Amino acid sequence: MKLNIAVLAGDGIGPEIMEQGVAVCSAVAQKFGHEVSYRRALIGACAIDAVGTPFPDDTYEACMEADAVLFASIGDPKYDNNPAATVRPEQGLLAMRKRLGLYANIRPVETYECLIHRSPLKDEVVRGADFVCVRELTGGMYFGPKQEPHPNAEGIEEASDSNYYTRPEVERILRVAYQYARQRRGHLTVVDKANVLASSRLWRKVAQEMMGEYPDVETDFMYVDNAAMRMIQDPRHFDVMVTENTFGDILTDEGSVLTGSMGLLPSASTGEHTPVFEPIHGSWPQARGLNIANPLAQILSVAMLYEHFGLLQEGRLIRQAVSASLDANVRTPDIQTDGAPHYGTREVGQWIVEYISSQAS
Ligand code: IPM
Ligand code: MN
Q1: What's the distance, CA 311 to chain centroid?
Q2: Out of 80, 267, 270, 279, which could bridge 275 as a Cys pair, Cβ 3.0 to 4.6 Å?
């Protein structure tokens, strides 16, 4: 297969983990006889520095012309504590999602037996947890009508965001979630705040109408506050959860730490145009250039990329290589066992590349 991949490394640890993601992508391509080409483009703070905007038109074109986008991370502390900044790196990511129509963000939360002891939860609570969060990605408060902070008629400062959703937006993301539930254990949890929010009542209404079309899937409804609690009390309860943009953002950070490290969770964003594969963690600017960032979420994002194109063996080999590296204790400091030597970002990536290249085809 021929694959043109747009490579958006972004900021912070992005370039370092991307280097390993690309190396793994190429190793797999070579093993299975695929022809992969890469086109690098700017996004985030580095794009603001270079051309003044976080999602330049060149980058948009590179994404639109590619079969897939491999994205790493964006963000820079110089913008974080400056509410007055008018351009922000995050706008680059949001613009990419919106312009590519990536309404479905798939975030699988899986546990690795050898890392369970690193989870803040008791082993017996977290062992075997395995669910997917389907997060709506192009609607809700992120994109609804908003007012930046400004003085109102009485001279009091005010600001607002609107959690705006339309029926078609809700319907299409629920369909994606039902498809996942069908392929998994047949259990879908719709997470909302329908006891308070009108937008959530729309979600619930649409889901209640649709559930009859999926009799093979058991649908249940949960308020988001309860879901946040249930995730730490009994994460195995969940198979597929579906929720709006903001709730999904928050719950997936919670989900990522359940498993013991945020550095391990990949995600896929799909919708109308080119799909994007990216780790769920941020750009960790403090670690930039130190060769300590965990490249596994990026590498697993490459597995999701191959799987998206039906290349399941390719994905499986990457997952197998990642598990083997963990079992061999070839791990970055964030997940290394006490007393065992630390490996750098590059060393973990190289180990995985060598593992892949050395497997019999
Ligand atoms: C994520 C991130 C982004 C989000 C930020 C960087 C805009 O936290 O992908 O979860 O809020 O969606
Ligand atoms: Mn987030």
Answers
A1: 20
A2: 270
